From TrEMBL:
<protein>
    <recommendedName>
        <fullName>D-alanyl-D-alanine carboxypeptidase</fullName>
    </recommendedName>
</protein>
<feature type="signal peptide">
    <location>
        <begin position="1"/>
        <end position="27"/>
    </location>
</feature>
<keyword id="KW-0732">Signal</keyword>
Length: 256
């Protein structure tokens, strides 16, 4: 009888250890040291209880080191706030506010960027009295680069970059090598350039022209890309994207 008990105990311990290892591996797979080091805490405070839902973005630990899961998998969960924090995003050079939320039964919790949270009445957590209209990507590209050939796949690549829901991942891709990886998923090329710009009014061609000029691509310079393929996108002032600022645009230029 003692042997049976001992065997069952060993099996139980083995299963327990296996579960711990499995849970640890799962947590480790969501851990990102680069994401944690990409932000600095400005302040963290308690806040009143409000009810929200979230269908985009992700839920993190308090310093973004661990990603608990994508919000689309918990789209039907009602989240209740109890705290908020401001994080300074070192690479982007601006602050972002995250809310600490819990499910009604307390089984789920984490920090969600407030731009992804919608109040139960359907409104976002921050109302902006701004214009969320942007110029059509194809029209913008053809106007800004009249000597180049518009490529819709490059616009798709720009859209995919802008909708990455992790600011640390976005920042890691802000390089020639990183952007090459983004584009290569859509089209092959021999040579590539990218332009990252900010427009005060993404609904205005004049504003976009000024933004490109500020990045060293005035009208005369843009005409030098005759024969290149070009595509891109610009976000609206009301767009709620975690890694991209409102009014930010991405343009890709390639030679095939």
């Amino acid at each position: 009888m003692k042997k049976v008990i001992q065997i069952m105990t060993i099996i139980g311990v083995g299963i327990g250890l296996s579960s711990v290892v499995s849970m640890t591996a799962s947590a480790s797979s969501q851990y990102s040291a680069s994401r944690a080091s990409s932000v600095r805490l400005v302040w963290r405070k308690a806040m009143k209880r409000h009810a929200y839902t979230a269908t985009t973005g992700s839920r993190f630990s308090k310093h973004l080191s661990i990603r608990y899961g994508n919000n689309k998998t918990t789209a039907k969960v009602t989240w209740y706030t109890d705290a908020h924090e401001m994080l300074y995003k070192k690479y982007a050079g601006h602050n972002a506010i995250y809310y600490h939320v819990k499910s009604a039964d307390g089984s789920l919790q984490g920090w969600i960027w407030r731009g992804y949270l919608k109040a139960r009445n359907g409104k976002t957590t921050k109302t902006q009295v701004t214009d969320d209209v942007t110029v059509d990507s194809k029209t913008m590209i053809r106007t800004m680069f009249p000597k180049s050939t518009y490529n819709s796949k490059l616009t798709d690549a720009a859209n995919s970059f802008e909708t990455i829901d992790d600011s640390a991942d976005v920042n890691e891709l802000r390089s020639q090598e990183g952007m090459s990886q983004v584009i290569s998923r859509y089209v092959s090329f021999k040579r590539m350039k990218y332009i990252d710009f900010y427009s005060k009014n993404p609904a205005s061609m004049k504003s976009i022209d000024q933004a490109l000029t500020a990045q060293g691509y005035d009208a005369a310079t843009r005409k030098n890309f005759k024969g290149w393929s070009v595509g891109g996108s610009v976000t609206g002032l009301d767009d709620a994207l975690e890694g991209i600022d409102p009014g930010e645009g991405i343009i890709y230029l390639i030679q095939q």
